[in-house]
Amino acid sequence: MEDRRKEIKGILIEELDSLRQRIIENHIRAGQRASGRTIKSLHVVVDDNHGFLFGRQAFGVLETGRRPGKVPKGFYKIIRQWMMDKGIQVEKPKSFAYLVARKIAREGTELYRTGKHEDIYSKDIELTIQNIMNRVFGIFSKDVQHINLNNNANSNI
Predict the structure, then answer these.
(1) If phi over 0 gives left and psi between -120 and 50 gives alpha, with beta otherwise, what is residue 69?
(2) How far, in Å, CA of 44 to CA of 16, rounded?
């Protein structure tokens, strides 16, 4: 039983680490990387009964963009930092950051406004779940075969 638990825990670690790496690659490929905080926020935690892949709260907008609405206080400062991280240079950076922040608050990000969808994590999560189910089922299918073989051996008596 303990060996089986270790094997399942190993599967969770492998699959979630692989998912983490694919998400990072998709994020970079989509040109979304700026400061690296989103990538740094991704971490895997596996205990005896569960596996988790954690990321920062704003992770959900990577695929569909940010819709219009209330923004955090000092949002223009976040935009300003994003500009610096991306190497965007303009004549009046503070004013530009303020205008971009206001536009996002009013209209959402470009990704949201265009209705596009970036495949950053959804498809890979589905694939990972399927991989975990198949691999874990494979462990238990050995037990089912063993039970079946024992049952057949007893039926000849």
Answers:
(1) left
(2) 7
Residue 75, C-beta contacts closer than 8 angstroms, at least 6 positions apart? 101, 104, 105
Q: pLDDT, tens digit, for every residue of 23-40?
A: 999 999 999 998 899 999
Q: What single-letter DSSP state applies at residue 34?
A: S
Mean pLDDT, rounded, for 138-152? 67
| Cα 148 to Cα 142: distance, rounded to the nearest angstrom | 10
Q: Which parts of the chain fold into alpha helices (H)?
A: 2-29, 37-41, 61-64, 75-86, 93-107, 110-114, 122-155
Summarize the confidence of residues 67-87 as an average pLDDT. 94
Average pLDDT over the chain, rounded to an integer: 90
Decide if 120 contacts 27 (C-beta within 8 A).
yes
Expressed in angstroms, the distance from the first to the final Cα of the chain is 29
Q: Distance between CA 100 and CA 76 in Å, rounded?
A: 7
Structural tokens at position 78: 């976040």
CB 86 within 8 A of CB 34: yes
Q: Which residues are CB-contacts of 124 (< 8 A; sequence separation ≥ 6)?
A: 19, 22, 23, 26
> What pLDDT score was predicted for residue 49?
80
149: DSSP letter? H
